[in-house]
Amino acid sequence: MAANSKRASRASSFRDREYSPTSVWLGRIVVFVLLIGSWEVLSGRAFNAFWLSKPSLIATRIVDMLKDGDLWFHMSATLQEAIAGLAIGMVGGTLLGIGLAFSGIFERWIYPYMMALYSLPRVSLAPLFIVWFGIGLSSKILMVVAMVVFVAFYNAFEGMRNIDKDLMDMMSTYKAKWNHKLRWVVLPSITVWILTSIRLNIGMALIGSVIAELVGSNRGLGYYITYSSNMLDTTGIFTGLVLIMAIAVVLEQCVLLLERTLLRYR
After folding, report:
1. Residues with Cβ < 8 Å from 263, sequence gap 6 or more?
2. What share of the chain in percent tops pLDDT 90?
3. Which of 3, 77, 191, 203 is most open to solvent, judged by the fewest CB atoms within 10 Å of its CB?
4. Spatial distance between the Cα atoms of 83 and 201, rounded to a whole number of angstroms
5. Are 114 and 150 in contact (CB under 8 A)?
6. Are 84 and 144 within 8 A, CB to CB?
7. Residue 151 class from Cβ within 10 Å (0-12 exposed, 13-18 middle, 19+ buried)?
8. Architecture, CATH, for domain 51-262
9. How does pLDDT run across 171-222, given as a tens digit for each residue?
10. Which residues are CB-neighbours of 229 under 8 A, at least 6 positions away?
C-alpha cells in the first residue's frame, strides 16, 4: 500500500509540474524542425517525392496561392463555414444538453433517440444536404452543425450531471429562480466542459466543412484538395491539408486564451 501511494504521489507531482513557456515553445520548435527537416531530406531519397511531395514545394505553393489570391479565396470559405457551423452547433447542443438535464422524466424519453441520431454516420448526410440546400453556404454550415452538435450536447449533459447537488439544493432552499441557478451554479460548473467541447469541435467543424466541400462545392480547401486530386497534384493535396491543420492550431490557441481568461480562478 505504501509503495502504491508513493508511486501515485510521484505520478501526480509529475503531471502537476510547471514548465516555463520558453521551454515549451522551444520543444515545439525543435519537434517541428525535426519532422519537417526529415520529410524534406527523405523525400526523393528514401521514397518517391510524387507520393508525399516536399515541405519546400508546399511552401512554394502557398506563396503562389497568396500572390494569386487563391489562398484567401479558399481559406475564407472554409473558415466561414467552420466558424458559423461551430457557433450554431455549440449553442444549440449546449442548450439542448442543459435543457434535457433539467427536464426530469422527459430526459428518459429523449436520451435514447439522441444516442440513435449520434450513431448515424454524419458523412452520409453531406449528399442529402447538397440535394436539399444546393452547393451554397447553407449546406456546408448544416454539415458542420451535424458534426458539432452532439459533442456539445454530451459535454453539456455530462457537465450538468456532475454539478454539486448540494449547491442546487441550497439554491432551491433559498427559492432561487431558474435563471439565477443557471447564472450562479450551472454555467460556472460546466464552463470547463463547454471549453473542452469547443476544443474538440474545432477539428469536427473543419472535418464537416471539408467533407461538404468534397461532395459539392466550387471553392474552399476541400474543393481545392478534390481539384488537386483530380489533377494528380500531390503537392496541392498536401497544401490543402497543411492549411487545414494550420487553421485548427490557430483556432485552438484562441480557445486556450479564452480558457485562461475564464478560468483564472483555477
Report:
1. 191, 192, 195
2. 16
3. 3
4. 10
5. yes
6. yes
7. buried
8. Orthogonal Bundle (1.10)
9. 667 666 777 777 677 777 778 888 888 888 998 999 989 888 888 778 889 8
10. 237
Greater model confidence, 135 or 225: 225
Contact assessment for residue 185 and residue 168, using Cβ atoms and an 8 Å cutoff: yes
CA distance 152 to 97: 8
pLDDT given at position 265: 58
pLDDT score recorded for residue 245: 92
Residue 66 CA to chain centroid, in angstroms? 26
Q: How far apart are CA 120 and CA 48, in angstroms?
A: 39
Question: The dihedral of CA 28, 29, 35, 39: what is its sign?
Answer: positive
pLDDT of residue 238: 92
> Could you give the CA distance from residue 137 to residue 76 in angstroms, rounded to a whole number?
12
Spatial separation of the C-alpha atoms in residues 9 and 60, rounded to whole Å: 50
For the chain, what are the domain ranges? 51-262
Q: Rounded to an integer, what distance in angstroms lies between the CA atom of residue 262 and that of residue 63?
A: 37
CA distances from 93 to 148, 192, 194, 198 (A): 8, 15, 10, 11
DSSP class of residue 47? B
